[in-house]
Design goal:
Oligomer: heterodimer
Helix content of chain B: 55-70%
Order of helices and strands of chain A: EEEHEEHEHHHHEHEHEEHHH
Radius of gyration of chain A: 18 Å
Bound molecules: adenosine-5'-triphosphate, magnesium ion
Strand order of the largest sheet of chain B: 1-2
Structural class of chain B: mainly alpha
Number of strands of chain A: 10
Number of strands of chain B: 6
Largest sheet of chain B: 2 strands, antiparallel
Number of helices of chain A: 11
Radius of gyration of chain B: 21 Å
Strand content of chain B: 5-15%
Distance between the termini of chain B: 19 Å
Largest sheet of chain A: 6 strands, mixed
Shape of chain B: globular
Structural class of chain A: alpha/beta
Strand order of the largest sheet of chain A: 6-7-8-3-9-10
Chain lengths: 249, 367
């Protein structure tokens, strides 16, 4: 198994945020993890990245148990998280932000190649390379956040709500880029509230509700599941009809 | 473990209006007094220009030392949101290390002479190496012992209390080990204390001491070096990243514990250098030598905006100058110069707690 979470439990003091969730990602897949506010999506990614304490359960990556490892070791293994809300270093330039993404890399030539690749994906970043990250627009910051994640040369990329707060056109662009990154060989675990878009690009999906996985299936199956449609895709209306109306603002 | 009283973006509460009135009254009162003093000094000059220039000279020298120490407060605050009140004592340990190095070189007889007289340059270099090294290691262990265990403490004041405890511990330990009596730095002949150049002016002369020139130049070199270090090196950039967004820095694979250690070590190096300068320039010292410079450098860091490196440098220089020009300007006793530093601290905290240079712009580079 490429990547697997088994029976993961996470508590924040008295709050039982993750109540025994299990999920898998196969090599080369895009797996969507959808759910409403406070369902535990970010907590799942933060458990993988080793920034929250895990009470019980296991996380294995390429047949190695990585539960409870320090974050830098997990990043070194190629599990890179792009956090919710972008979290650009505001006073560092675009280029410095990208360099931080490659913090664990020492091969200068490789870093340079990765940066060129990011600039190919996001030409806007090249124009703005000397601008402080904090002065970029929201959409540009999201691009920078994804680009910074790519600088870590991820094998499995953990994306936390990349579409948050973006206009419909930008959301389309970001999802195109996610598919593009995936086609270049990076597996993706995609956390989204925008179920419509996420399930459309995902091979498989999981629905998380108050710390429990309540539904799983292929992206298409979930997209057509009446329960998912009722809860996340704006009631009974037809998905194709509702179109971008399914965005959660 | 954030100390919120420095946070300029604090949520506005109903008390804000009253505080604004307080600020206006305090600010106008202070301004009126300064203008009154300026008029008096212009109409009835008590000091000639030579005096003012030599006050400025003194201020620049001590200001350089304050600046070096202040950088340590600001770096540590940026990375850990913590005021390291034992920082002055780290400087004191550096001062002792330099002292013992010179003592050893003075006692080391070579023929008719000794090591100190034969290799004064090398002796100075090694004294600074010892001072910065001892302070660096002390900083490293201070963080590990006094702060790291309290990192996730639910009691927000715990690290602050620990800082005060560590400060008292270090001072008392130094007193027990080295005695309470004041000691005198033995300088190599190259930097004999008091020697220097007399510059004749119209109504007198200014004494430029070798130790002063040396200290100021070395302080400036270290400040420029630190600035380049923080801007250009990978470690420097990781310090900036942690100070801007600790959790995200962690997601980049930056080990924030290691960065905390490294920050304390860098702060220690600068404080140690200031400690040796202090000894070389002022001569007399004991285990309390770090106390006043420590609090004053803290004032300088607040003046420049805590967390802001260039601000700490400027704050240190400004404080040094104001403190030495101040008594004459205000017409008060010269022994009251320490009061000036603390008055500035209070005025800054009331009038502009985010520091002189803050513009509240999100793009302004700090650490
Ligand atoms: N550091 C924390 N301390 C205490 N409770 C937390 C912490 N982080 C998350 N929680 C709680 O855990 C639950 C799950 O939060 P999480 O951030 O994982 O949700 P999410 O699915 O990512 O939500 P959103 O879509 O709003 O980002 C929530 O009830 C939240 O309040
Ligand atoms: Mg979330």
């Amino acid at each position: 198994m490429y990547f697997q979470i088994q029976d993961l439990n996470v508590y924040y003091r008295a709050i039982h945020a993750l109540q025994g969730i299990s999920l898998t990602v196969n090599k080369g897949e895009i797996v969507a993890l959808i759910g409403g506010n406070g369902a535990g999506k970010s907590s799942t990614l933060n458990s993988i990245s080793g920034v929250v304490d895990i009470t019980s359960g296991s996380i294995t990556y390429q047949d190695e148990n990585i539960t409870g490892r320090a974050t830098d070791q997990i990043v070194r293994k190629g599990l890179v998280q792009v956090p919710e809300g972008r979290h650009i270093f505001p006073k560092m330039t675009v280029q410095e932000n990208l360099e931080m993404g490659a913090f664990l890399k020492n091969d200068k030539a490789q870093i340079q190649r990765d940066m060129e690749r990011v600039f190919d994906l996001f030409p806007r970043m090249k124009e703005r390379r000397n601008q402080p990250g904090g002065t970029l627009s929201g959409g540009e910051q999201q691009m920078l956040a994804i680009g910074r994640g790519l600088m870590g040369d991820p094998d499995l990329m953990l994306l936390d709500e990349p579409s948050m707060g973006l206009s419909p056109i930008l959301v389309e662009q970001i999802f195109d880029i996610i598919v593009d990154i995936n086609s270049q060989g990076t597996s993706i675990l995609l956390v989204e509230q925008n179920a419509q878009m996420a399930l459309a690009v995902a091979d498989r999906g999981y629905v998380l509700e108050t710390g429990e996985i309540v539904l799983t299936g292929s992206g298409l199956d979930l997209l057509n599941d009446p329960k998912v449609r009722a809860a996340y895709l704006g009631g009974d209306s037809d998905a194709s009809e509702s179109g971008s109306g399914a965005y959660y603002f | 473990m954030t100390l919120n009283f420095f946070n300029p973006n604090k949520k506005k509460s109903s008390g804000v209006r009253r505080i604004n009135w307080l600020r206006i009254i305090v600010g106008l009162g202070a301004l009126a007094f300064l203008i009154y003093r300026a008029i008096i000094l212009i109409t009835r000059p008590t000091y000639g220009s030579v005096f003012w220039l030599s006050f400025l000279n003194t201020g620049l020298i001590v200001g350089g030392m304050y600046a070096l120490i202040a950088i340590g407060y600001t770096l540590v605050y940026g990375v850990m949101s913590l005021i390291n009140f034992a920082h002055g004592d780290i400087m004191m340990l550096g001062c002792f290390a330099g002292f013992f190095t010179f003592e050893a070189f003075d006692a080391w007889k070579i023929g008719d002479s000794n090591f100190m007289n034969m290799y004064p340059g090398l002796a100075i270099f090694l004294a600074f190496l010892a001072g910065t090294g001892v302070s660096m290691i002390s900083g490293y262990y201070l963080e590990k012992i006094a702060y790291r265990p309290l990192r996730n403490s639910p009691v927000r004041l715990a690290p602050l209390i620990s800082a005060v405890g560590a400060s008292i511990f270090i001072e008392t330990a130094a007193q027990l080990m080295f005695g309470a009596t004041k000691k005198t730095y033995k300088n190599p002949p190259l930097l004999a204390r008091g020697s220097g150049w007399n510059i004749e002016m119209g109504d007198g002369m200014i004494v430029i001491t070798k130790t002063g020139v040396f200290s100021l130049i070395l302080a400036l070199i270290l400040m420029i070096g630190l600035y380049i270090f923080v801007r250009k090196t990978k470690l420097g950039k990781s310090i900036r990243a942690v100070s801007q967004d600790k959790n995200t820095a962690q997601l980049m694979g930056i080990n924030t514990d290691r960065v905390a250690s490294q920050t304390f070590m860098i702060s220690g190096v600068l404080a140690g250098a200031a400690g040796v300068m202090w000894g070389i320039h002022n001569g007399l010292f004991n285990h309390y030598v770090g106390f006043l410079p420590g609090i004053k450098a803290f004032t300088a860091a607040v003046l420049g905006g805590i967390g802001n490196i260039p601000g700490a440098m400027a704050g240190g220089m400004i404080l040094g100058i104001v403190e030495s020009v101040g008594p004459a300007f205000l017409g008060i006793d010269f022994q009251l110069k320490d009061v000036i530093a603390f008055s500035i601290l209070i005025f800054v905290l009331i009038l502009k707690p985010s520091g002189l240079f803050s513009k509240n712009a999100s793009t302004q580079e700090k650490v």
